[in-house]
Amino acid sequence: MPAAALKPKPLPTQSTAERPVLFDSPYEPAVKRPLPAGRPRQWYVTHNRRLKAMRLAIALLDSGVYLPAQADDETIRGTALEIGMRPPSDTTCRMVRALMRYSR
Q: Which end of the chain, N or C, is less packed with Cβ atoms under 10 Å?
């Protein structure tokens, strides 16, 4: 008798693809707070640009674009349109690629 036949069959694992995942509590998004007042305008511009780049990087990773070399400006702008965001500037596109580079 072969050795493989003597091994017990592993128990099936639970896959979330086959059945929905049940949460203990319903999902509630985090409460948005206003940005701190009194900062220079450039701080707010940079802050919002970073948030936009982070959202785009997450969307690209979810869509299967894992390397910064795969994320050219057209791909990033197309993803922005798919998720309902205005097309990003060249600077924001560079930030998206930088985030993807450093997440590894």
A: N
